[in-house]
Amino acid sequence: MTSSSAPTVRENGTGTPLVLLHAFPLPARMWEVQLERVPGPAGDDARVIAPDQRGFGTAPLGDLPPSLDTAADDLADLLDGLGVERAVLGGLSMGGYVAMAFARRHPERLAGLVLADTKATTDTDAARANRERVAAAVLERGSVDLLIEERMAENLLAPGTDPELTDAVRKMIAEADPAAVAWAQRAMAARPDSLDELAALEVPAAVIVGELDTVTPLSEARMMAEALSDAELTVIPAVGHLSSLEAPETFNAAVRALLKRVK
Q1: What is the mean pLDDT of the chain?
Q2: What CATH number does residue 250 fall under?
Q3: What is the four-CA torsion angle of 52, 55, 59, 62, rounded to 10 degrees?
Q4: Running DSSP on this structure, what letter comes out for residue 53?
Q5: Domain range holding 56?
Q6: In the list 35, 180, 234, 235, which could disulfide-bond 254, CB 3.0-4.6 Å?
């Protein structure tokens, strides 16, 4: 890379490497429950790796232009640094977009794929325009207060979510760097359709979606599951877009089931 973005990495366990890529605009600590529990009681079911992605958490943003390909190449560099040749890659929301970019650019390094509350299709014109609106606004204001004002935490979670979880998500959003928010919004707006790339993959996959996810709904999850050659679809009842936080045990069970299918 011409501009370093070495991420802070959370890691736990031994066994099959499982890299978890966080949602927008949260840091890697959204995966705390998965880091603790997916490795299993003996800690040897998986080596769970959760990096902060470019600009989020304590990872520097760097000066490269917005691109999910750059984020995917950051991940390849991370795996090199960790001595991991192939990994199961899991991404939720934006993390799913990065996982699909990685599958497109580095397919030989993919041992399995978890796509959670994400989609393989491109943004509509309206969605792209909204991303640019948010990017411009947070940069102009030098603040991510707009995300709180527009009730992003509440919109990501199912109605009736535990207020403590809503508060925790709101706090993580509030910590995001405005420049990183703008960079990620513009990178996501420019992403290509990935259905053909998913169809070409020959690794086991899990597609997970919250039943009440309005950001990337069940119809998008079904499209991905149907495109993939070896995918299991898990629909988690009564949860929204952040299924790993809202229903961690059900989410973790789907991930562990995939790990058992990985060769």
Answers
A1: 96
A2: 3.40.50.1820
A3: 140
A4: P
A5: 9-123+192-261
A6: 234
